[in-house]
Design goal:
about 25% strand, 5-stranded mixed sheet, Trna Endonuclease, Chain: A, domain 1, two-stranded antiparallel sheet, Restrct_endonuc-II-like, globular, Restriction endonuclease type IV Mrr domain-containing protein, Restrct_endonuc_IV_Mrr, alpha/beta
Length: about 120
């Protein structure tokens, strides 16, 4: 992972950050709320990606996780990967390189259409 950038704003939209990894530029959205992330938040982030270059990707990190409806609404053919607090814990606890986690999440999303696959499933 390279060239991290902190939060920035463009034409009234807030982006929590961006980074480059494995030849792709990712926009970052992070939610540290108590409740699970709802469909509206995921749709808004996907909309931000739609306004950017076609090759841009997004990483949405939600400490509390995601509602099933939210993930279903986001659906397939999106450029968003999702991580929750348990994924972050597993990544740190098992000393997994974050770059490896992102590569495996991206590959699984391409192969299955699932934007959220737990780290536990990716690193059996």
């Amino acid at each position: 992972m390279a060239a991290p950038r902190g939060a920035f704003s463009l034409r009234g939209e807030q982006i929590d950050g961006s980074f480059q990894h494995d030849g792709h530029t990712y926009l970052l959205e992070a939610k540290w709320h108590q409740g699970k992330t709802q469909a509206d938040d995921l749709r808004i982030f996907e909309g931000k990606l739609q306004e950017k270059a076609a090759w841009s990707r997004g990483l949405f990190v939600s400490h509390a996780g995601f509602t099933e409806k939210g993930l279903d609404t986001l659906g397939r053919n999106k450029r968003v990967l999702c991580m929750d607090g348990l994924d972050l814990y597993e990544t740190l606890d098992r000393r997994l390189p974050l770059g490896d986690v992102i590569v495996r999440k991206a590959r699984k999303a391409v192969e299955t259409g699932r934007v959220f696959v737990r780290v536990r499933e990716l690193f059996l």
